[in-house]
Fold this protein.
Amino acid sequence: MARITAGVATSHVPAIGAAIDNQKTDTDYWRPLFAGYEASKSWMAAHTPDVIILVYNDHASAFSLDIVPTFAIGCADHYAPADEGWGPRPVPIVEGHPELAAHVAQSVIEQDFDLTIVNRMDVDHGLTVPLSLLFGQPKAWPAKVIPLAVNVVLYPPPSGRRCFELGKAIRRAVESFDEDLSVQIWGTGGMSHQLQGPRAGLINSPWDNAFLDRLIEDPEGLSRVPHVEYLREAGSEAIELVMWLIMRGALQDRVAVRHRFYHVPASNTAVGHLVLESAP
Amino acid sequence: MALEKPYADIPGTTIFDLDQARKGYHLNQFCMSLMKPENRQRFKADEAVYLQAWPMTPEQRLGVLARDYNRLISLGGNIFFLSKIFSTDGKSVQQAVATMTGMTQEQYAHMMSNGGRSPTAN
């Protein structure tokens, strides 16, 4: 049977992708950030999964305002990097896992989560920057990916509670897949940041670190935090963090922290990163 | 009955909710068109002519021409859509975002490198 072996949380700031693509990772500005991912890259090399369910948000790339799905699961066999206005990132095509994706979609919909099915889409920095951070610059990504796109751009996004429960449904879905697959779930986006208006540049490190603590120890309680707290305390784009609750919901109640990292800034954003395994 | 919007009083912040999205639909869809290289070329060749093809308000068109991002956000624009404009201009997110804060590029970059804007001003 398939099983979820670990969860990864990471920010997906586009400037991080640009730094990797333009060989700037060793500059004074970027070195401390990439140093924070070295331990995770080593861990990942030893624990590369067969499939990653990658929870991210599309940033007006695949989804315009014509259609805005709250939760959309990719069931395609591959996804091309999106042209976000400066040409596609020079990263490999993302290979999907249509069989597991179809199984998860059917199972999760039957558990009352009304996912949108996507059979063709390009994937933007929200999905490809986390892959670059954890795998570097390989010729082909070493794992297959099932994109799970969550609307956090058009307010209101799904509640933290709904996200956490969706994670649990995904775990049940994966564990009912017959093939023996190692699956990780990644939650991306955040942490505190605001990209608009006179308050742009807001960073709230104490709030972010409390979020990391609670995601590890008290995800149930954290899932009840209302959207307005994210917006007010951690900036308008910090609402992306609800996606981390999907990842956490898919793990066991108790987890072991394999790596934790926090860094300010990457461009306008506070970067948070966790590697979690089910506790022995 | 009007919906409660507990986020309406957050200073210096416009939440891109469904009312904003309704106002900004054509503006944001124009931004999406800039994801195609041939459209970026046409836009750069004559911005005003290109904008005429989109049923935006005159205020929205002026906001685009002036790259007045605070104004565009108040008129229903969303930063991830507007990013197609500043990407077309060859500007980074940080460069574009700084223009909304009343700070210079250098002041804003300095603030971010020193931990960002303090939340105590909330």
In short: The first strand of chain A starts at residue 3 and ends at 10.
